[in-house]
Design goal:
five-stranded antiparallel sheet
Length: about 325
């Protein structure tokens, strides 16, 4: 990794404006937020310990393996803050009037991330010893730097919050069936084992209903897969409307649905199954064009968990009862 290269100048007149007029370094520093409100004497003292560099895009400035005891204030251009083994992930972009390297200078430790120029930049480099002296002697510089860091932390927190919200939304979507809006097998595999374990530990009943749409292949073959999708959506909507608040409905796969009924013994689960069976039978199904489609019926297998039973065993028993129901 190269340390920043470019044309560095210690003179008191280094920044050239568009009309080719040189700006003395103290005046240049006075325009920066870091030195806002600072006295002229201290600006002149700092100017003598600064350099201005014109740095090409793509140039590394700082990194964990290449610490530099200086702070870079961006006069023009942008720099990227990167992390990763190959410095490939950009986590922040800083522009004019912002600085980099101040934390490692203050803490006297190598930088925790890599800083690379995003564009051609004009940078003001302040010696680390000079910055530490300023923080010890100037309440103005210390206050200004604290404000800059606070704004950056606030911005980083906002970015982090949005990132966590996106991750949570993505994780939620990964556990929901996109067609019906019910939970999917992934959610079931994660949620049912601890739920069953808690009910067994507390000696509370938990029942499981397996639903299968009758003759669904024939329905698809006759009316088309889009009509089949509408039937699945209608069944899922009916389940959602008729279940209690603590119950959970899952699209198990294909035309199969699974219902988890906490605190529900076998007899009550059977009554719920019958209500659902009749409700689904009476549900009107509408095609995407708004036209009516034939209704569907379901067969349901009911099983209540027993002490010490595994999820797999409970599932097997519910499948067996469902198979018997379909045969009948």
């Amino acid at each position: 990794m190269r340390v920043a290269y470019g044309i560095w100048d210690r003179s008191m007149a280094t920044e050239i404006t568009a009309n080719q007029q040189a700006i003395p370094m103290p005046d240049l520093l006075a325009r920066l937020s870091l030195f806002e409100g600072e006295q002229a004497e201290l600006l002149a003292w700092t100017a003598a310990r600064c350099q201005v560099g014109r740095i090409a895009a793509g140039t590394p400035l700082l990194g964990p393996r290449h610490p530099t005891d200086r702070v870079y204030v961006i006069a023009r251009g942008e720099v990227e803050i990167r992390i990763g083994r190959k410095r490939e992930q950009v986590i922040a972009i800083l522009g004019p009037d912002q600085c980099v390297g101040e934390m490692s200078v203050i803490e006297n430790v190598p930088p925790s991330a890599n800083v690379v120029t995003r564009t051609d930049c004009t940078l003001i480099a302040i010696d680390g010893a000079a910055l530490r002296h300023l923080l010890d002697t100037s309440h103005v510089v210390a206050r200004n730097l604290l404000r800059m860091l606070a704004r950056r932390v606030r911005k980083d927190n906002l970015i982090l919050r949005h990132s966590l919200e996106r991750q949570a939304a993505s994780a939620q979507h990964a556990r929901v069936d996109p067609l019906t809006g019910l939970f999917n097998r992934r959610w079931l595999d994660e949620s049912l084992p601890p739920l069953l374990e808690r009910h067994q530990a507390d000696e509370r009943p938990l029942s499981r209903l397996m639903l299968d749409i009758d003759h669904f292949k024939a329905f698809n073959d006759t009316h088309g897969h889009l009509a089949g999708d509408q039937a699945l959506i209608a069944v899922a909507r009916t389940l959602t409307l008729h279940l209690r608040g603590r119950d959970q409905a899952v699209r198990f796969g294909g035309e199969e649905f699974l219902l988890i009924l906490p605190d529900t013994a076998l007899a009550e689960a059977g009554r719920i199954a019958n209500r659902l069976r009749h409700a689904i039978r009476d549900t009107a199904i509408t095609g995407r064009d708004g036209g009516p489609l034939p209704g569907v019926t379901v067969s349901i297998g009911v099983a209540e968990g027993v002490p010490g039973e595994s999820v797999e065993s409970l599932q097997a028993r519910a499948d067996t009862v469902l198979y018997q129901a379909k045969q009948e």
